[in-house]
């Protein structure tokens, strides 16, 4: 009862998220100081921004009235090239990433193989698509081949990593049951591992196809083929209606792919 | 029925005749599509350059090594700009993504047939377009510079953050919301007590995750003129200063690794 | 004090959860609502404070017809009805104190509640209630660190701090072990007696209901099948409510339990 008498009449405050008061204030002050410093170092030319509002309005209006016609040839060719790059690189990327994923799963692969595969994944993930594309364009020349190689390379890092994690978290018992039946390594993979990770592999592949298409739209900026080059030209010439048309096509295709992947993933699982 | 009678013997097959035929046709179509794609790529490739590639790669390598280390003194400001683009862009995006997520989530949207589709449209359209394209667009509108980069990153991130956030909102435990409603709380109080505490961990996770991605993306925004270290990369490439290019690539690599490490640490601390 | 008149709830799927239920609960009466799963017990309780919108009929709390109120008027009336949930329904990432104080949300404005600046009298009352249920030392623990029984005690505090006239209790013991279940039921009934509250307790466990309440309502397919004293629950009555089964054991067990207790 004495405990209660002590508590009653005392104000109550929510216990703070960060217990140590000095650390809490240091974090808040540091953050505010950073924001001020960051804001001060960004040179915003407000006059230029104000001028730009008019162009911004034009661009938004262009979305209401996109021009598919006047550069329809360029748009069509660029889109086809983007799609071709997407499909080819997804297929090659998936095919290569399956063995790498198997190698990068600690519960399947021996240590040396594991380390090699993990480092391939790390390199692929650390390098940005656009930077890889720049280097590959410098090496292989302009055109969709560089884009295709870039996307394949990026697919490997993405897919192998997620697939390897899935293999590592699979149900050990099922796989062991197959091993116990005296299966060879390849049979074990085929019967014990594959059925468990297949739905996820299909889901991830479709998701990566979606990403590859989006990425293929920018590779053209550095000369690696696809719709990006056409888009860049449209912006350079201030042809907002054509640019809007291209962006709309991209959005529609991405939406369609997302819808499709939703359906496929539902059916697989 | 996958069991078939073959000369009086029962033969088990994985698929029925129709199924396996369909299976093969699908594979055939797949292979044909891939062959066509490959042929198209091959047709627009100058194979002479490709066969020459090993020599060129070797050539670039010898020129790019060793990196020009002293150039790093000129990279301080671009790195600072890159960090700002990513951080300010993420903050702006989060500010806009929160209301959109609440409008898009099935259980909090004020109207299922008007507001929700609009919110979803914003999410899809900002998400489908790469930040480089947003940067191109913004440069055409408000001129080149860091500011265009910040806005480009912000717009690109809205859809991403709002999507993950509205999924988190749809997954909350409704009974906790019900309990708060039953006390006679107002709409906003239900939001603050019943919903926000439940999505706060997801929100923090999303913020850090997106910040990590934005660091990567902001390193290349300069290629189209939107500020940051990409600007230096672009100008070094234009004058074929390969030792500078290799140094910048190393810096970018370091930035990516550090940001991934930071975000992993922070996420670990939250969850 | 609480009066239901021809309360009907038909779900969009066409399921009729409540078929014209009439019920009168006088001041200070603790009443148990029993019946098989899907009989409409939960729906009935939620129709009273309109967490579920009734299709037709009226609910009178005192002289006010709750079914005709606007949203803001309803919120004021909800303050008079404390609710205790199955699975506790605490906001798990908030502290025990915040959960208890959330019972005052109907009384304080948004910014005060957002900044956690509750009036000192509310904080004092919260400490008193927590002390009454033996959790005063846990005030700054997060709700998900508590055990099931402790969480339900916090749930009870949250309902009581509303200063209600009526408690709506939905399966308070469904996820608790038998001993804790009994402690929680005893606590609820004691608190009702102390404060002169009426309560509707929706409960699965017939034996537990008989032990503590003054009146039992049997619900089947959304209609009242039994209304009377706990002693009136004969095997025949239970058969009409739940269907054919050997009931002797259930009822006898109660007597033994009583003797032991």
Question: Could you describe the 3D structure shown?
Answer:
Chain A has 269 residues and is an all-alpha fold. Chain A has a single domain (69-268), classed as Orthogonal Bundle (MetI-like fold), CATH 1.10.3720.10. Chain A has helices at residues 2-7, 21-41, 46-64, 72-103, 111-126, 129-140, 144-168, 172-180, 185-219, 228-236, 240-268. The longest helix of chain A has 35 residues, at 185-219. The mean pLDDT of chain A is 85. With 271 residues, chain B is an all-alpha fold. In chain B, a hairpin with a 2-residue loop joins strand 1 and strand 2. In chain B, helix 4 (115-128) crosses helix 6. Chain C is of the alpha/beta class and 261 residues long. Chain C folds into two domains: 2-80 and 165-260, P-loop containing nucleotide triphosphate hydrolases (Rossmann fold), CATH 3.40.50.300; 90-163, no CATH class. Helices cover 38% and strands 22% of the residues of chain C. Chain C contains ten helices and ten strands. The longest helix of chain C is centred in the C-terminal third of the chain and has 18 residues, at 178-195. The chains are: A mainly alpha (269), B mainly alpha (271), C alpha/beta (261).
The CATH superfamily name of the largest domain in chain B is: MetI-like
**And the CATH topology of the largest domain in chain B?**
MetI-like fold
How many beta-strand runs of chain A?
A: 0
Gyration radius of chain A, to the nearest Å?
A: 27 Å
**Major sheet size, sense and barrel closure of chain A:** none
Strand content of chain A: under 5%
H/E element order of chain B = EEHHHHHHHHHH
Integer-rounded radius of gyration of chain B = 26 Å
Strand ordering within the main sheet of chain B: 1-2
Please write the CATH class name of chain A.
Mainly Alpha
Shape of chain B: flat
Q: What name does the CATH topology of chain A carry?
A: MetI-like fold
Average pLDDT across residues of chain B? 87
Number of strands of chain B: 2
Helix % of chain A is over 70%
Percent of sequence in beta strands of chain B: under 5%
The total domain count of chain A is 1
Largest interface: A-B, 56 and 55 residues
Mean pLDDT of chain A: 85
The name of the CATH architecture of chain A is Orthogonal Bundle
CATH architecture of the largest domain in chain B: Orthogonal Bundle
